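Same chain as my last thread, 102 residues:
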Amino acid sequence: MPGPPKKPTAIRLLEGNRGRLPINTNEPKPTSGGVTCPSWLDSYARREWRRVTPELQRLGMLTVVDVAALAGYCQALARAKAADIVLRKEGLTFETVNGYLM
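reply #2:
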């Protein structure tokens, strides 16, 4: 397949279909409703989920196939915050039993 990959129909429509190619009316469209917060997220991750989900849904950017990626982002943010709390408390370095600074 030579050349650049084909653009999604939505992007072609936003750009005004500059190439005047026929519009694909059979392009798959994932379901946008029924997105719920996974039960395994911790409390900070759930807060982030509740913060970003309404805006993503309002913009039409959140579908059922995006749940895992969004959950991963929320959990990663929660872990980064937890790591930051530990680093602020214990510092960025520590001394080994032999006296080396690491």
